[in-house]
Design brief:
single chain; 513 residues; alpha+beta; Rossmann fold; Neuraminidase; 3 domains; 5-stranded antiparallel sheet; 5-stranded parallel sheet; 36 strands; 34% strand
């Protein structure tokens, strides 16, 4: 490969995509230039030229750049709103294409009027909400969800960065007269969808219109799943309470990685950096705590029908078995390449009170033990059993199904002991049903699958067939917000327990139907 790069000239991008702009082709070829003096010296310079190129395109031209079948397959993404902690999914009788919802944060009322008249003239199906300050916008965001946020960079009570955390879960378009490249780069790193520079002739309003038009197309009726099996009628999820804080005392945590609900409905928490296990009742009251000298980094936990607690350690990859009182009973597994050993350890579950499943992300496999610590079987890409595994991590089970989350592919695989077809779903992305560094997985009594995402700071819920149902959460420290949602458990009555690792706490949610 190195010889080929050094000896052959790169294929001109126009041979791959004839529609590519010459300016973009020049940037690509300069990246591949063999003469060091002509090649880009810094990634920052590449980013700056790309931003200037993007800023000089109309929104229509921007999408034409990648408007080939192959490009769309690789690069298109779905614009999605991460729902607020309290939400309602309507019944089938109200599942119609709803109006597109826009929040415009702008202190110039003249621009508001010009913008509003322009959009109305186009006849777009939208709901338009206007806020003149950050304070006013935050009040609106407490009760409303939007498909797109237009935000002026400078506002009377601050700037874009002062409200970013409140709007980060929505697609954002920045409007400003500031064309400083360093500011543009800083803003775009936040994941802003568009950076639109205002002009005195207000031509930028037409560009905003084209951006809105594109987003409305992307968020059309296809985003609303009308499969009766995937709809929860009049389903409301709401925040109940928070348990814990950072520290080393009882009911305090240090980077906890796993939560499990036992048959007695006790909460078992792997308090990872405190090298211990904490046991709470369902209301979050402290019951007990135990540790073991050689257990340094407990990362996942499960229980059997007798109440014994099985803990895996991320450092030594051993499975330690404790009595319900926290006394060490048995140890098996360990780090290594022999049978029964693991390259790494991440998740653990007991299937049908017969088999212990342990995920090994670095080993690209799942190892199955009996209760005596003997290896029964293993699934890996090499074995070809149940398909490909790259980095299996979170794992959960019920009577008939095992739910495996592979965070590198990423996807969910549901295997069963009923000779039913396997269910597989998920892909990389930030849209509805897409995964952005998923880590935790849980299942409720209705067969709904819950996925926690550490990068998107949200929980997504799917039906038993893998259809997206709803999502909640965003980044932050407030109630209903997460800083790296790591693990999840659902009680028999449907109470949802989310382990908020970065905030060192557990958040409890419930629902009404």
């Amino acid at each position: 490969t190195i010889v080929k790069i050094m000896s052959e000239n790169p294929k001109p991008p126009k041979q791959i995509n004839p529609n590519i702009k010459s300016e973009l082709e020049d940037i690509i070829l300069r990246c591949l230039e063999k003469d060091p003096d002509k090649r880009y010296q810094k990634a920052k310079d590449v980013a700056q030229d790309l931003l200037y190129f993007k800023m000089n395109l109309s929104n229509k031209e921007l999408y034409q750049v990648v408007n080939t079948e192959e490009s769309n397959r690789k690069f298109s993404s779905e614009t999605t709103t991460i729902e607020r902690p309290r939400m309602t999914i309507s019944g089938l009788n109200t599942l119609k294409k709803r109006k597109f919802s826009i929040l415009h944060i702008e202190d110039d009322k003249t621009i508001k009027e010009i913008f509003l008249k322009s959009i109305q003239k186009k006849g777009l199906p939208y709901n338009y909400t206007f806020a003149e300050s950050i304070e006013e916008a935050k009040k609106i965001l407490n009760s409303e969800v939007f498909d797109l946020v237009l935000c002026d960079y400078n506002l009377p009570d601050g700037n874009f960065f002062n409200i970013f955390d409140d709007i980060s879960s929505f697609p954002i378009v920045i409007t400003t007269s500031i064309s400083d490249p360093e500011l543009i780069i800083e803003v775009m790193k936040k994941g802003v969808k568009e950076y639109v520079i205002k002009d005195t002739e207000l031509k930028y309003v037409d560009k905003i219109y084209s951006i809105i038009e594109k987003n409305i197309e992307d968020s059309g009726s296809e985003n609303y799943n009308t499969d009766p099996q995937s709809i929860i009628k009049n389903y409301e999820v709401y925040f109940v309470k928070t348990i814990g804080s950072a520290g080393a005392d009882n009911l305090q945590f240090s980077s906890p990685r796993a939560i499990h609900i036992s048959n007695e409905e006790k909460l078992i928490i792997a308090d990872t950096k405190n090298s211990r296990i904490q046991v709470l009742d369902k209301q979050g009251n402290f019951l007990s705590m135990f540790s073991e000298d050689s257990m340094k980094a407990p990362c996942s936990v499960t229980t059997d029908m007798a109440g014994k607690i099985y803990v895996i350690d991320a450092l030594d990859c051993k499975i330690r078995v404790f009595s319900p009182r926290g006394n060490l009973i048995d140890v098996f597994g360990g780090k290594g390449n022999d049978i029964g050993q693991l390259s790494s350890a991440y998740g653990i579950t007991i299937f049908n009170n017969e088999k212990i499943y342990v995920t090994d992300p670095d080993g690209h496999k799942i190892v199955i033990f009996d209760f005596q610590g003997n290896v029964i079987n293993s699934y890996s890409s090499e074995s070809k059993e149940h398909g490909e595994y790259k980095s299996p991590s979170g794992i959960a089970s019920n009577k008939n199904f095992v739910y495996i989350l592979d965070h590198s592919i990423p996807k969910v695989k549901i295997i069963n002991n009923l000779d039913l077809p396997e269910v597989t779903f998920g892909k990389r992305g930030t849209g509805k049903g897409d995964f952005s560094v998923p880590k935790g997985i849980g299942v409720d009594n209705e067969g709904r699958v819950y996925i926690t995402e550490t990068l998107s700071h949200r929980v997504q819920v799917f039906n038993a067939k893998g259809d997206w149902v709803y999502s909640f959460g965003s980044k932050g420290t407030d109630n209903g917000q997460f800083n790296g949602a790591e693990s999840i458990a659902i009680s028999p009555d449907g109470t949802i327990f989310v382990l908020d690792r970065g905030n060192n706490r557990i958040q409890i949610f419930s629902y009404q139907t």
